[in-house]
């Protein structure tokens, strides 16, 4: 007798609407249930999970599966780590390059960091930091960008004392170069740099373990990833970086990319492991997908890369 498999959250008893099949018994964990069709006859109450049965159509099994999946997703979101009362987080956006910049701070010490600032938005960022009474200690880049010029250099002028940060493998100039797993502190908080090459050699994902968040740059986007056809890009390397350094984080960790082009603001490890249309494939399929994207040449690359190699100190507006 061939079993029918579906998903459910709790033990239940289901009767299929069929002239020859009746009670199906739940043989399941909290995530998977096995429905065994059996001949139609009356069962004593002790032989089934409940004392009565509910007649449903086989098509309802699809709704059961969807409901169970939704419940799992709700539970996943409910389990996210809450931000500490003294932790400040602000997501900022540049419309021209579709870039997200992130401001994090310790509200007690007032020490702050910026991740992936954009040149044209440096005055906005500096004004916000001053209005909030914060002190910018570090301006970090997840990698040497090709679609915009970093605001790091300009921020060093607007907010003296700011230290520029990028990975050692990036090849870009900075006040501080990070090695894999090296930590930067702001107040009582710390952010760790994880080397996640593939989009470029110098890509880093920045992790704040205590808050359950990571900033993935262009390595992992929401339902996508950075391209691998320029700047030492390599599809197999990117795939390995995501699967070994990001997908191994706890499922409920929230992920914040450097860009999004569809209006999404954040994702999670669990979401991307389940729904990312590229990175849920095996490595060979992923490599084939990336090789056939046929993307246009980046408009800003010839200007942005030379500028960002100097950590944004090139072509800065004059005061």
From TrEMBL:
Cellular compartments per GO CC: mitochondrion
Keyword field: Acetylation, Dioxygenase, Iron, Metal-binding, Mitochondrion, Oxidoreductase, Transit peptide
Keyword Mitochondrion (UniProt): yes
InterPro entries per UniProt: Metallo-B-lactamas, Mito_Persulfide_Diox, POD-like_MBL-fold, RibonucZ/Hydroxyglut_hydro
A Gene Ontology BP annotation from the UniProt entry: RNA 3'-end processing
Reaction catalyzed: S-sulfanylglutathione + O2 + H2O = sulfite + glutathione + 2 H(+)
EC number: 1.13.11.18
EC category: oxidoreductase
Family stated for the protein in its record: Belongs to the metallo-beta-lactamase superfamily. Glyoxalase II family.
Protein name: Persulfide dioxygenase ETHE1, mitochondrial
Species the sequence originates in: Culex pipiens pipiens
Source organism phylogeny: Eukaryota, Metazoa, Ecdysozoa, Arthropoda, Hexapoda
């Amino acid at each position: 007798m061939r079993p029918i498999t579906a998903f459910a959250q709790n033990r239940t008893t289901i009767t299929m609407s069929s002239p020859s099949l009746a009670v199906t018994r739940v043989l399941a964990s909290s995530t998977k249930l096995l429905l065994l069709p059996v001949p139609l006859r009356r069962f004593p109450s002790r032989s089934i999970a409940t004392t009565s049965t509910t007649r449903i159509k086989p098509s309802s099994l699809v709704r059961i599966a969807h409901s169970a999946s939704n419940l799992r997703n709700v539970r996943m979101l409910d389990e996210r780590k809450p931000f500490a009362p003294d932790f400040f987080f602000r997501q900022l956006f540049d419309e021209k390059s579709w870039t997200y910049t992130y401001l994090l701070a310790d509200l007690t010490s007032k020490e702050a960091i910026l991740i992936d600032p954009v040149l044209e938005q440096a005055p906005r960022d500096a004004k916000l930091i001053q209005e909030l009474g914060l002190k910018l200690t570090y301006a970090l880049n997840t990698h040497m960008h090709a679609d915009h010029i970093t605001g790091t250099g300009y921020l060093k002028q607007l907010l003296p004392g700011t230290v520029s940060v990028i990975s050692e493998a990036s090849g870009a100039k900075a006040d501080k170069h990070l090695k894999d797993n090296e930590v930067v502190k702001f107040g009582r908080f710390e952010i760790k740099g994880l080397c996640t090459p593939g989009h470029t050699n110098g890509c880093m994902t920045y992790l704040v373990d205590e808050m359950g968040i990571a900033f993935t740059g262009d390595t992992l986007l929401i339902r996508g990833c950075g391209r691998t056809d320029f700047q030492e890009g390599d599809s197999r390397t990117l795939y390995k970086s995501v699967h070994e350094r990001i997908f191994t984080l706890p499922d409920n960790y929230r992920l914040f990319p450097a860009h999004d082009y569809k209006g999404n603001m954040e994702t999670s490890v669990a979401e991307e492991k389940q729904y990312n249309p590229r990175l849920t494939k095996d490595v060979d399929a992923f490599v084939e997908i990336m090789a056939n994207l046929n993307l246009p040449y980046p408009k800003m690359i010839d200007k942005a890369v030379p500028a960002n190699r100097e950590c944004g100190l090139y072509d800065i507006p004059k005061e």
